[in-house]
Amino acid sequence: TDGSAAQPVTFAADMSKANATYSFGDGTSIYVEDITSSSAAAADANADLIISALVTNPNQESNGTFHKDGAGILEFTAANTFNGTASIREGVLRLSGNGALGTSTVTLGDKGTLELNVADGAEKTFTNKVTGTGKVAKTGAGTLKLDTANGFEASSLNVSAGRTNVVGTMTGDLAIADGAVFSPGDGIGTLTVNGLFSADDGARLVFELGADASDLLILGSGSTLDIADDAVIELLFADADPDKAYTLIQAEDGLGEYTDSAFWTNLLTAASDANWDLSVVGNTLQAIAGSGTIDPSDPSVPEPAAWVLLLLGTFGLLYCRKK
Question: Chain-centre distance of CA 156, in angstroms?
């Protein structure tokens, strides 16, 4: 009567017991409707059905499919070992806590969403194959490491909170919301996006620069950019070579309307802007050491290169001889 959501249904189990599992055989269908109370103004983001017991196959040889139907939210919180196909035909399948889908392939229908929730201070790695026309959402303040080596195809990946590191190749749009953090690669790595890459005001794009390479975002043929004026670019350059130009973004069809180097440089954080400039070169965005003074006490700043120290020593020797 207060307009709040109704309480979810929870299937729990004592995980210390050997039989504390649910088995999904081939063709299993779980229908979950939104159980928001009748007095609530709109649907809520709370789970409608929570399964905290381990979900597995009925036997080791089984490799079937289970379907998520209905507009509600089904939430898994255990490190499930189901190894068939998870078909999300409608509504949301949320993985939170230790929630996982084993080695299963995730197929997304037009009205289906896979939600990857990572709590504040936590890290989660997701490597399952994803295919279909639905959506994938990253929620929660924690860090998601998304490896697309097994294949990733969806209408979109929406990062609404926390940090998401994505490596490999994905087909679909990638959207970074206000307050969310994105980095191509886990450590220094490369992500290829075949779709629209967008960053809202307040979205933070992080690129790590190493001695030999940097994070790289590649936009495949037909891909486009939509970068807000108040998005943020942060460079992590502790091991960077100040004499090296680092390619951060490479767009096969060009950068479109984003060919003004000043636009990109204005997105830099203060620490990054003090030492680096961003320059559009052809169809790439490059980071080049600027004229700012590098503070050697700053742990994010590289130590002077050996050749610089040698050059300074040579000048000192010549000066002494001249005197």
Answer: 12
Give the whole-angstrom CA distance, residue 318 versus residue 313: 9
Average pLDDT for the chain: 83
Residue 246 CA to residue 240 CA, distance in Å, equals 9
Q: Is the pLDDT of residue 133 over 80?
A: yes
Q: What pLDDT score was predicted for residue 143?
A: 99
- CA 57, CA 81: separation in Å to the nearest integer? 7
Relative to beta strand 276-281, strand 284-289 is: antiparallel
Contact 209/236 with Cβ under 8 angstroms? Answer: yes
Q: 65: pLDDT confidence band, cut at 50, 70 and 90? A: confident
DSSP-derived secondary structure for 182-249: EEETTTT-EEEEESEEEE-TT-EEEEEB-SS-B-EEEE-TT-EEEE-TT-EEEEE-TT--TT--EEEE
| pLDDT beyond 50 at 296 | no
CB atoms within 10 A of CB 89: 18
Residue 3's identity, in one-letter code, is: G
Q: Please tell me the predicted confidence (pLDDT) of residue 59.
A: 54
What does each C-alpha distance from 270 to 232, 235, 238, 266, 275 come to in angstroms? 10, 10, 15, 10, 9
Map residue 296 onto helix, strand or coil.
Answer: coil
**Reported pTM:** 0.82
Predicted confidence at residue 145, as pLDDT, reads 98
The DSSP 8-state label assigned to residue 292 in this structure reads S
pLDDT classification of 175: cutoffs 50, 70, 90 = very high
**How does strand 284-289 pair with strand 246-251?**
antiparallel
Which SS3 state, helix, strand or coil, does residue 254 take? coil
At 255, give phi and psi (nearest 5°): -90, 5
Cα separation, 55 vs 76, whole angstroms: 9
